[in-house]
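Sanity check

After download, print the first record. It should look like this:
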Amino acid sequence: MNPVVLITGASRGIGAATALLAAQNGWAVAVNYATQASKAQGVVDHIVAHGGQAKAFQADVSVESDIQRLFAEVEREFAHIGPLRGLVNNAGIVDQVQRVDEYSFERIERMMLMNVISPLVCCKEALLRMSTRHGGTGGSIVNLSSVASRLGGAGQYVDYAASKGAIDSLTIGLAKEVAGEGVRVNCVRPGMIDTEIHASGGLPNRVREVGPQMPLGRAGSAQEVAQAIVWFLNEDSSYCTGSILDVSGAR
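Expected structure tokens:
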């Protein structure tokens, strides 16, 4: 029996890197994706080719019914392998660079739905399966925040920074709430990381332009963030809960 981890938004970037590393560490991996089926299947195929266990699951985690279906399908498909013992709340969005006084209501609503409400609902569904209060055997939840939560995102993404500040608070509060129920809750805050998310926010050259200005002289990689996430998933971090770890190169 292997522990099962569900990673949201795992078809690319940090999510994909985490899926690959978690599989190397003995986790059976549920690779969630919204639209990029071929990329998600590529992650699964790579894991399976290297002797791991993985399956792709389509779900839009900004939709409650999709989240509920996703957890039910993961539980059913991996029943012969082991229980759900890990959740990585990785899926998230940025938007175009704007000041707050230029935001539309729809932009703010979309940001908070995807970056705050979605992880909260995923945590709920995970707890219903992991917590000893509900008959589970425990587990580990890792939330993805951002150093933007303490930098503020002024002139670019204040709404994104605010949404990640909420993730910091969620981590601390939930960790205390379920500490006696076998579930640990921790948070990783990446800094400038070389992934596709910058292009989706209208800044495709951001890593190339800003990376050399970082204290370490470069941006980080998705693999470097994955190392921190998987450490929190594993029992190596057994006395860590409510922890927030910056992977930011001193930014």
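If your output differs, re-run the checksum step. Summary of this record's structure: The chain has a mean pLDDT of 96.
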